[in-house]
Amino acid sequence: MLLIRDAGAGATLLEFDPEQHLTHRILVVDDDLHIREVIRVALKKAGMAVTEARDGKEALARFAQERPDLIVLDVGMPEFDGLDVCRQLRKTSDVPILFLSARDEEIDRVLGLEMGGDDYVTKPFSPRELVARINVILRRALVRGADGMAASAGLVHGRLRLDPEQHMATFGDVPLRLTAIEFGILRAFLGRPATVFNREQIMAAAYQMNIQVSDRTIDSHIRNIRAKLAAFDCDNVIETVHGVGFRLGRCEPRA
What is the residue-level pLDDT of the chain in tens, covering all 255 positions? Predict the structure, then answer.
């Protein structure tokens, strides 16, 4: 498969490994093989890469190796259960955690969330609902990541600079006239410059009020951003990763 970098009039073709460009990496931890299989199939249909662990100790080892974007974590595993895993992870990581449990008692939910869990789903569950909840958590994490980086002096990549506090953007020393949506899209890209964003993620970052828009609307905003930067001889502000989404380019003028 090929990665095509959209550069205005021309395009550069490069070889790439598609597994490296899946939207998110999810670690699924459960001692029940059938449940792991159900979750794995649902997440892969949603375009996510899945790693599995059968118990708490294996989960910690997998986490250290894979550094997933989110963990689906069963509470009721023998010996080293999900709460123990969460307790260990929270010493060094704020990775999002969605707890699974066969029990629906309020004390269990409260305990899991107070220990640092992001959500709690009881068994049996709908795979579609589970995927939806995971997407909600990942969207929140995406916005938090952009907000955390924005707390510094500003977001800078190449010649492009964003100041979220003053809502200003410049290319070199020249101010850019961006709409609020365009500013939100660039803010998300600069907050995670190595990430390939799909359209749903761009939508979540740019439209803060859960407004649903079409893919064509997102593509229109991307085209407008490219056109505004092209006026400064920058044709590489946003690259297209065909079949996946978009990512930040070099943000430099043409040589």
Answer: 334 344 344 433 333 333 344 478 999 999 999 999 999 999 999 999 999 999 999 999 999 998 899 999 999 888 888 989 998 998 888 889 999 988 766 656 677 777 778 888 989 999 999 999 898 888 777 655 555 554 445 689 999 999 887 888 999 989 999 888 888 899 989 988 888 999 888 887 776 544 555 667 888 899 999 999 999 999 999 999 998 899 999 999 987
Name the nearest CA neighbour of 191 among 144, 244, 255, 138: 144
The C-alpha atoms of residue 23 and residue 195 are separated, in whole angstroms, by 9
**Under 8 Å between Cβ of 80 and 121:** no
pTM of the model: 0.53
Q: Where are the alpha helices (DSSP H) in the chain?
A: 33-45, 56-66, 82-89, 106-114, 127-150, 180-191, 199-206, 215-230
Check: CB of residue 143 under 8 Å from CB of residue 205: yes
Q: In what order do the strands lie in the sheet with 97-101?
A: 49-53, 25-29, 70-74, 97-101, 119-122
Other beta carbons less than 10 A from residue 215's beta carbon: 12
Rounded to an integer, what distance in angstroms lies between the CA atom of residue 87 and that of residue 40? Answer: 24
Helix (H) / strand (E) element for 156: namely strand 155-157
Residue with tokens 């400064």: 232
Query: What is the rounded distance in angstroms from the CA atom of residue 196 to the CA atom of residue 239?
Result: 9
Provide the 3-class DSSP secondary structure of residue 66. helix
Q: What length does the chain have?
A: 255
